[in-house]
Design brief:
The chain is mainly beta. It has helices spanning 15-23, 70-75, 89-95, and strands at residues 27-28, 30-35, 41-46, 49-53, 58-64, 78-83, 110-112, 118-120, 125-137, 140-152, 159-161, 164-166. The strands form 3 sheets. Strands 3-2-6-9-10-5-4 form a 7-stranded antiparallel sheet. The protein has a 3-stranded antiparallel sheet with strand order 1-11-12, with no helix packed on it. It binds flavin mononucleotide (FMN). Residues 29, 44-48, 62-64, 66-69, 96, 98, 101, 160 line the site of flavin mononucleotide.
């Protein structure tokens, strides 16, 4: 299916309308990271995480084609996804800063998982994935990973909603 299938009498949504609508979907925040052939870690802040399949256990992340380190992700055999806690907003901000691809891990507590995938310490979950499938869709690549290890800790999540960081308010 492609946009060619959309009937021409239907006006296309504008980019602003689209972003505005998407911002109304509250998400958690994660850092996705991989290492290159020299063992150097690369990572960025993402909200595009979803579980995909239970058997086999699959997840997906979506990276924009303009992301500086997308080639490292395309080459990587493994990648990690670390869900951030409420008190890790500074980590999210650091890993979303454009032009700082090479010093994002400096001063941040992180470790290499058994696969070598870089993981942020003290997050809510640390998920290691083996690259399973990659699809190009519009201006993003969808990376599907097979989960090979998952460690979980309790705590409140960092949330993103309507273009702002939020806290979970429990009833
Ligand atoms: C809350 C939040 C969520 C984000 N989610 C994604 C995402 O899912 N996919 C993506 O490609 N970029 C996402 N970004 C943007 C990247 O983190 C950011 O554009 C990128 O790391 C900028 O640096 P770079 O292009 O040099 O890598 C998100 C940013 C923020 C602040």
């Amino acid at each position: 299916m492609s946009s060619e299938g959309v009937e021409s009498r239907l006006a296309a949504v504008s980019s602003d309308e689209f972003r505005h609508a998407c911002s109304r979907f509250a998400t958690g925040i994660a850092v996705a990271a991989c290492q290159d052939e020299n063992g150097v870690p690369h990572g960025l802040t993402i909200s595009s995480f979803s579980s995909v399949s239970l058997e086999p256990p699959l997840i997906l992340i979506c990276l924009g084609h303009a992301v500086t380190n997308i080639e490292e992700f395309r080459r990587a055999r493994y990648f990690g996804v670390s869900f951030l806690r409420e008190d890790q907003r500074h980590v999210s901000e650091r890993f979303a800063r454009k032009g700082h691809e090479h010093d994002r891990f400096d001063g941040i507590a992180w470790y290499s998982g058994e696969s070598g995938a870089p993981l942020i310490a003290n997050g809510l979950a640390a998920i290691e994935c083996a690259a399973y499938q990659r699809l190009t869709s519009g201006d993003h690549d969808i990376f599907v990973g097979e989960v090979i290890r998952a460690a979980v800790q309790d705590g409140p999540p960092l949330i993103h909603f309507a273009s702002r960081y939020r806290r979970l308010s429990e009833e």
